[in-house]
């Protein structure tokens, strides 16, 4: 849904009440969503990605993304999905971006990365020193499988241990492994520092797994998670919780201020969440091949009430 006024957009009204404008700063990150196909159908997915989705980025669009990276001189490329590992030409995209962008991040649900057919992808990531950002909702099998499905815990653990064997998450290796966790339900996450200590202690003691950092974020009220909120009668209460937790201090550091997001079909968005909300960059459809460089500073950013999730508590930066 696209909001055209502060009357229809409570988040825009909250910004206005605090005397804030959400506009772009200098853009240094290129986020690339290579498709909505995924081997899992997680309950908290804001894009409703899953095994039945067929949207994946073509090689031609990948070439246009690489050309855009050259034109815009990005410092970071953030590859996401769906499960990016399921996109056949992902290796082509990574190899093409590596000479042009100093830092590449690959977001993974772990299970897709562990498929036997993707062992070559792990080796490529190691050679290119690609940072792995892996989703792990919790450190207990029951919680993980409630969100992601039976058998996901063991597969995730096996991939994390394999990454550790290759040096990922180990001190001095130069291979970064970060984890991302979301709450299991319609509530806000615990503090990031405390959660990281808990994850590091539990994974190290029980499984010998190490990683660099943990990032915790509120669930986005979009896609499959929004459907779950509606079906369980939790939507209004959750939105009220997010609104009450609005922290104006987070606005300056929001990722949408320094990031441009490319969808699987080449359409540009201010962030991956706006893709899920159907809010294209500049509120009009712009293809990656048609932009000469990154959006300029002070350009407006499209918003909707889902943006409360990025500004709740410590925020999503």
CATH class: Alpha Beta
Low-confidence stretches: 1-5
How would you name the CATH homologous superfamily?
A: Aldolase class I
**Helix proportion of residues, in percent?**
25-40%
Q: Cα-atom Rg, whole angstroms? A: 19 Å
Number of helices: 11
How many discrete structural domains?
A: 1
Strand order of the largest sheet: 6-5-4-3-2-1-7-8
Largest sheet: 8 strands, mixed
Annotated CATH architecture: Alpha-Beta Barrel
Beta-sheet strand percentage?
A: 5-15%
Mean pLDDT: 93
Provide the succession of SSEs: HEHEHEHEHHEHEHHEEHH
Using the alpha-carbon principal axes, give the shape.
globular
Query: Which structural class matches the secondary elements?
Result: alpha/beta
Count the E strands.
8
Structural overview:
- With 317 residues, the protein is α/β, with parallel strands linked by helices.
- It has one domain: Alpha-Beta Barrel (TIM Barrel).
- Helix content is 34%, strand content 11%.
- The protein contains 11 helices and 8 strands.
- It has helices spanning 10-17, 59-72, 90-97, 119-128, 141-148, 152-165, 192-207, 223-231, 235-244, 272-277, 308-311, and strands at 29-33, 76-80, 103-108, 131-135, 177-181, 213-216, 259-262, 268-269.
- It has an 8-stranded mixed beta sheet with strand order 6-5-4-3-2-1-7-8.
- Helix 2 (59-72) links the parallel strand 1 (29-33) and strand 2.
- The radius of gyration is 19 Å and the shape is globular.
